[in-house]
Fold:
Amino acid sequence: MTEALLSVENFTLARAGVAVLDDISLVLPRGRSLALIGESGAGKSTLAYAAMGLLRPPEVALRGRLQVGDADVASAPERRLRALRGARMGLIFQDATAALNPCFTVLQHLSEPLRRHRGLARTACRARALELLDGVGIADPERRLAAYPHELSGGMQQRVMIAIALACEPELLIADEPTSALDVTIQAQIMTLILARVRALGASVVFVLHDLALAVQVADEVAVMYAGQIVETGPAGEVLNTPAHPYTQGLRASAIEFGAQRLQPIAGVVPPLSAMPPGCRFAPRCPRASARCVQRPALTERGPRALACWHA
Amino acid sequence: MDVELAPADAPPSPPRLLRAWRRLRAQRKAVAGLAVVLAFVLAALAAPLLSPYAPTDQDFINAMQPPSAAHWLGTDSFGQDLYTRLLYGARSALWIGFASVAVGLAGGVALGLLAGLRGGRTEWLAMRVVDGLLAFPELIMAMAFMAIFGLGLSNVVYALGLSFVGPFARMVRADVLQVKQRPYVEAARLMGVPPRDIVMRHVLPNIASPILIQAGMRVSIAILLGSGLSFLGLGVVPPTPDWGLMIAEGRGFITMAPWISGIPGLALAILLVGLNLFAEGLRDALDPRTRQD
Amino acid sequence: MTRRLLGALGQTLLVLLVVSAVSFAFLKLAPGDPVALMLGSDYSRDSYDKLYAELGLGRPLPVQYADWLLRFVQGDWGMSYVSHQPIFEQAVLQALPVTLALAGLSLALALAVGIPLGVVAAVRRNSWIDMAASTLAVGGNAFPSFYLGVVLIWIFGVSLGWFPTMGFVAPWEDLGAGLWHLTLPAVTLGAWYVGLIATVTRSSLLEVLEQPYMMAARARGEPAWRVIWVHGMRNVLMPLVTVIGLQLGGMLRGAVMTEVVFTLPGLGMMITSAVQGREYIVVQAGIMITALLFIVVNFVVDQTYAILDPRLRKHGR
Structure:
């Protein structure tokens, strides 16, 4: 059994007294890929940033365990986390244009983690940077090194982002909606690139996505989140083709497919953070809800899958 | 697809309450500033009623007295009552402030409109002239004007007004250019509305409020410059009561009678703060960013 | 890039021409008879005529203007009949360095205090430092420099005796004494700027802090101080330079007042005494050189934008 790279246990993140992430537990073994699915506001990106140790007291309150390798992000000192970030964990942002500093060249961006975590000198940095650019499929890397972010196309900016995230060969890569801001035609290219590079490194990857179909294609496992809680996990294909949780079923039904006759949205809206219902947060909108749902169902395992529902 | 919901992951946009609070605070700033300014205006207008002395009554026996019952704020080196001179000084300060801005506004709006509306060669030429004017710092230009035309209150007003024409012209032109591009102006033109009407009904009303706010902010600069000129001996003529002049007169006696310079300076600072607060508060309250509803 | 530079230079030259025309007009408009002023109180008809011809005062105005301009660019600015010195020497070699030293030190002081203040105010919002910074901004803008100068002289110069209250010692001749003499004036002039710089730094940094590239830098393992000072401040420089450039007029105005209050023999002092003494030719030289200074500095500031913000480089202005 492959050891777990990312291991989250009863992790809660609270902001201003409200639990944004409520008692999350999941496990990601080495070399596997996980997709976090959910609507906007479900807490997917928050979990991703928390895993990088970017959300810390005093802005937020943390409880539980969030282990990346042998470090507990929830309790480790900042210095330890800084050594991990960029070196053993890499983060790819959704909007590459905004995530690149307009005043610095591509080379300057790439050199930063190389100098900090690998201690490379100028020439070595440059050589490695060229390698990295080549590895993400950028033609004419020499010229691109001296370019500023605004001189590159959206797809190229995202490739640079990927190169930066992979610069120090991390064990864990987190990709927050890496293709949402890109043209459809480029999306497939970028996704393939990420998967290829990750596989080559033997790293684990967490995708934060809202596109179900995409999740099935790129991830081994899937964790469905709703309002800061995990409602269902399991192998991607199984969960998304035969969803067990009412929310996942609703998501699938509301996904627009060619040939479908009508749109089928899930009734209601996500309750605001300050007014979360007790117990199962999906209950108010759930077709199967009953009086039992005021008590939160635990995430119970059912073979390779796990489910948090009293009625499934 | 997925139902679009209020993002909780992204940093929350300022909730309604915060926006309303910001506006209120801005208005409180504006109100506080306005209160201060009004106090000065009232004091200036009611000066003869508020003091038994005349500002130029000299009384050498009682010169350089610290504040006392007879002279609430003391006397200066000529024995003139400081409290009275303070009140009358408010008159010249306020007059200089508003009148010079009015003059500058008139000239600047005319020039800016000409440049913005005509475009082409006229605009280019007008803007080069404006650039030339703007190259002279306002104080320097005012000093040069005083050198040519002599000292005195009205000359100060003209001098400062002239130095404001450049900045206003530039502002007006920029605003006019912006408004010119708006669809309703374009529509009016296409419908054959005569140019004069377009200016009066579409352009002017829309540039009025930003220009007026800018003009408001300029009043405090005008007062500052006016008292500065007097301080340098290039403004109003003694014995006219003027705060800048009073500060200059008190310089030589700073150790034995610090109130001669100290008090008018404080009054000036308070008035300027009040004006700035009012103008800033007004600008913040009208700022489109806080007005998202 | 050079095409843009040339274009900017061309425009600047035109502005300079307008400025020179205005200065010339000033001289012509000045009251009093220049010949009589130069000759003093007692002169004969002959010497008057001679000087009149010498000065070329009978010729048509455009000719006089061209002649004056030609001489001006060659450095022949005439003779001061008060100090009996060539005005060029007096203005450029003596007065200008003083003003530059004062302005330079004040700006340095204002930046050294204002930027850290603004950064701390942004990073720790609503703390007491934030309040202090905004109070400083409001107060610094309100107190006229001449008043502040007088107050500082009273407290630190006369009462406490820590600093000299007048006079100038060139820092390039004697650094210690020079700085000591310039301290109070620089604080006076800088005070006005400090609040402004702190405010601009604070508000731009607040905007920058929300940008994803800041989080991205942290995600790469950069320490917080580096994220703020290297990644953040780099993007704050541009609005900061903009504001400093816009307020140059205010700085010059403050310099004039400060020089008079502290009796520093700079340009401001020169122009003021010349106006008081009705020495128009010196006044004219003074306004020309201030305008020139202004234009040059604005030009430099404009060019700095392109260096600071790479997004401006390719597309010109």
Notes: The radius of gyration of chain A is 20 Å. Chain A touches chain C through 28 residues (CB under 8 Å). Residues 96-167 of chain A form one domain. Chain A has a mean pLDDT of 87.
